[in-house]
Amino acid sequence: MEGSLLIIAGAGTGKTRTLVYRVAYLIDQGVDPRSILLLTFTRRAAEEMLRRASLLIDGRCKQVAGGTFHSFANLVLRTSGRRLGLTPSFTIMDRSDSEDVIQLIRTEMGLNSQRKTFSTQTDYRRNLQHDAQ
After folding, report:
1. pLDDT of 62-96, one tens digit each?
2. Residues 49, 19: contact at Cβ < 8 Å?
3. Which residue intervals of 57-94 are DSSP H helices?
4. Under a CB-based contact definition with an 8 Å cutoff, are residues 56 and 21 in contact?
């Protein structure tokens, strides 16, 4: 009953059921629900696990902290990020925004020309040969 639990298994193998019963069991054994952290990859899965656990025992499961790995990391960084030099108002960029910022930096640094990018090893060698001439 003590310590962390990590479950790794394929689809349809009972991961959700295992976690739901584990949470319900821990709470039923007297573990403070506020000391349980239930993380998964989707918000929907986390909500479903907590809903199922509540059906097994009672409303104490609503006190379990649950969510996605990303939302938990965001919460930790917003509340404790100052120790890392982050202000609570930092911005998380999605892939598209990140690519735009990288492209802007490349342009500002003059690294935006075709000649400076190497999509294959052959291109890299060809550019090296061109620079040597």
Report:
1. 888 888 888 899 999 999 999 999 998 988 888 99
2. yes
3. 69-80
4. yes
7-36 in b/e form (b: 16+ CB < 10 A) is: eeeeeeeebeeebbebbbebbeeebebeeb
Q: Are 61 and 24 in contact (CB under 8 A)?
A: yes
Mean pLDDT of the chain: 82
Whether residue 87 contacts residue 105, with contact meaning beta carbons closer than 8 Å, is answered with: no
Does 41 have pLDDT greater than 80? Answer: yes
Q: Which pLDDT belongs to residue 114?
A: 57
| Cβ–Cβ under 8 Å, residues 73 and 81 | no
Burial class from Cβ neighbours inside 10 Å (0-12, 13-18, 19+) for residue 72 reads middle
Instruction: Name the pTM for this structure.
Output: 0.60
